[in-house]
Specification:
Chain A has one domain: Roll (Ubiquitin-like (UB roll)), CATH 3.10.20. Chain A has one helix and eight strands. Classes of the chains: A mainly beta, B alpha/beta. Chains A and B meet through strand 1, helix 1 and strand 5 of A and strand 9, helix 4 and strand 10 of B.
Chain lengths: 101, 507
């Protein structure tokens, strides 16, 4: 869906749904996913339809993902870090299973 | 001299003379000027680096490597460089989630901005606040616009500017507005395969009235050069009156209608755009009066000649006050900063006032010809309110245009009641992606003007905050009692079971 014009210069690795992927240091989770060929990162809350990053500027909340166990993170607003474990956000948000911080 | 960048909420001072929200052209220029005058200035911005959306990643990119971004983009480099050399506090990766004007009744002598930085929420006080929150893309609700493989044009531009990402496969751009053409040329120059640019603008209509001012404006040369370039390099299809995105689990193409002919194109990525509108969320939640601007068909905050909103200590500059473009916004930032400087330092200072007036003059020059662009690129009605009942209007809560019309026909007081009845606008985006459509849809259905329909009333937090952040905010005994039903000094300790018993007793 997207390709990088320049190869990654300062790589780091992260996981999405168990898949080992690499990204450029400093880029957002949403861009790291798009650059890795992941175009859908969540399922919608009512009909469970696949959704992916739409605006990339923090307005649309389509790129919500679960990052290191914390749900409802905006992928385009969070910088990807070495060793991050990211999973799809599926369905409506829930209080059960919420992690303490 | 250079900015002091802060990463943690605890590193912020409790009070600044001026808090600027947004580090795009308007915010950077306003902050640079005020810091040079010796005021204590805090700049809050969501991005990791200054530039806003238009000059995004300007401090990382270079014309030698990213020539495809085009000349207009590099005009942001000196603005960002001057900003980074200023003596001010700069909080990148920071969210402004609330704003309250000063209130004598509430014993609040200063404006208060709610911020979230480094995972911690807090308030900072300011004598004056300048909102430079910029613009959002107007939503373009067409069937299939929620499918993966469909993005806003601005998103593709952000991917290109921040990570050097170029779409692979067949790209279709659809909609109207200067940004759509700019992006098409940028993507083409960066090596993307643009199958077609589908222009949905309904023609010049009333725009010819504003043509003379446009012909002698700075927009003229740039605009004509851009259109010529786009038409030479790309397949531009005009007069598109209907658009639908095809696909089950992702976009596979588009169906379009021009006059009586229908056509289908296959595509791997569809980029939508219907112009930009002011981002009024923070002004709205602060209670700043909004007014309808028919020229751009959007609500914008009411501002006086000095850039002051209906709240005396809240000023608004740049696209967040009304769409002006990057260079005009930068100049508007300076003009508003001079108004703030005058108000804070010496209201009777002729020199400041003179500088402000010449800044306003330059701003007016930069804006000359804007009316033509606004009128020429006003979206067609069918792209403002989707005629097809199956089209999703609210992407978050998945509410269709048909549901909204059904409910509205039974009688409504306005968008806020529609939200309560249907959950449209109640999802995490808080109506940013459906609000403008709801206003148009209701105005069309009730056969009235959008100004009379009004828009959503936003309440803080306007950006997501974790409950733990809210709970950790300073609070007094009355507030603890309001939430838990217990007084902290009472015999019953603040345990979960006691709180539960008290709140149940309340009911």
């Amino acid at each position: 869906m997207f390709r990088r014009l320049a190869p990654i210069s300062d790589p780091l690795s992260f996981k999405f749904e168990g898949l080992a992927l690499s990204a450029e240091k400093g880029e957002s989770v949403a861009l790291a996913l798009l650059a890795s060929g992941i175009e859908s990162c969540r399922d919608s809350v009512v009909h469970g339809r696949p959704r992916g990053p739409y605006c990339l500027m923090g307005a649309c909340f389509e790129c919500l993902v679960v990052i290191d166990g914390v749900a409802s993170r905006q992928g385009c607003q969070v910088e990807v870090r070495q060793g991050m474990v990211i999973t799809r956000q599926s369905g409506a948000r829930s209080m059960s299973g919420a992690t303490q911080s | 001299m250079s900015v002091v960048a802060v990463e943690h909420a605890s590193d912020l001072a409790a009070f600044y003379e001026v808090v600027v929200v947004g580090a795009g052209p308007a915010g950077m220029s306003a902050a640079t000027l005020l810091a040079a005058e010796g005021l204590s200035v805090l700049v809050l911005d969501e991005n990791p680096a200054p530039g806003g959306q238009i000059y995004r990643s300007i401090t990382y990119n270079a014309a030698a490597r990213q020539g495809y971004l085009g000349e207009a983009y590099w005009q942001g480099a000196p603005i960002a460089a001057a900003f980074l050399q200023s003596s001010l506090t700069y909080a990148p990766r920071c969210r402004a989630w609330s704003l309250d004007g000063a209130s004598i009744a509430d014993n609040e002598p200063y404006a208060r901005v709610g911020v979230s930085l480094g995972g911690v929420a807090r308030h900072v006080q300011a004598a004056k606040v300048i909102l430079a929150t910029g613009a959002l893309e107007r939503p373009m609700p067409v069937p299939g616009w929620t499918l993966p493989g469909v993005m806003s044009a601005g998103a593709a531009q952000i991917a290109l500017k921040t990570s050097g990402l170029v779409p692979t496969g067949r790209v279709v751009l659809a909609g109207c507005g200067p940004l759509l053409y700019q992006l098409a040329v940028q993507l083409h120059d960066a090596g993307a395969n643009i199958v077609a640019l589908l222009d949905t603008s309904p023609g010049l209509r009333s725009a010819w009235r504003y043509l003379p001012a446009f012909v002698f404006s700075p927009y003229m040369f740039k605009g004509v050069a851009l259109l010529t370039k786009a038409r030479r390099k790309l397949r531009v299809i005009g007069g598109v009156s209907q658009l639908e995105i095809n696909g089950e689990d992702r976009a596979t193409g588009v169906s379009l209608r021009i006059g009586r002919t229908e056509q289908t194109l296959t595509a791997d990525l569809v980029l939508l755009h219907q112009g930009v509108i002011p981002d009024t969320a923070l002004a709205n939640c602060a209670g700043c009066a909004l007014e309808w601007n028919e020229a751009i068909r959007a609500f914008e905050p009411q501002t006086d000649a000095r850039g002051r909103s209906s709240l005396p200590d809240v000023y608004i500059a740049g696209d967040g006050a009304g769409i002006a473009g990057a260079l005009a916004s930068s100049e508007a930032g300076r003009a508003v900063a001079l108004a703030v400087l005058g108000a804070l330092v010496s209201p009777q200072d002729d020199k400041i006032e003179k500088r402000r007036l010449s800044s306003l003059h330059r701003c007016a020059q930069l804006r000359r010809g804007r009316r033509f662009i606004d009128a020429a690129y006003l979206p067609a009605p069918q792209f403002l309110a989707p005629p097809d009942d199956q089209t999703l209007v609210c992407r978050c809560e998945e509410v269709t245009a048909g549901t909204l019309r059904d409910v509205a026909r039974r009688g409504l007081t306005g968008p806020n009641q529609l939200k309560v009845f249907t959950r449209c606008g109640m999802g995490p985006c808080q109506g940013r992606l459906c609000g403008p459509t709801v206003v148009e849809l209701l105005a069309d259905l009730m056969n009235t003007r959008p100004a009379d329909v009004g828009t959503y009333r936003l309440r803080p937090p306007i950006k997501p905050l974790r409950l733990s952040e809210i709970a950790a905010l300073p609070h007094d005994d009355t507030e603890t009692h309001a939430v838990t039903g217990l007084w902290p000094d009472s015999s019953a300790p603040l345990t979960f079971s006691n709180i539960e018993r008290e709140t149940l007793n309340d009911r």
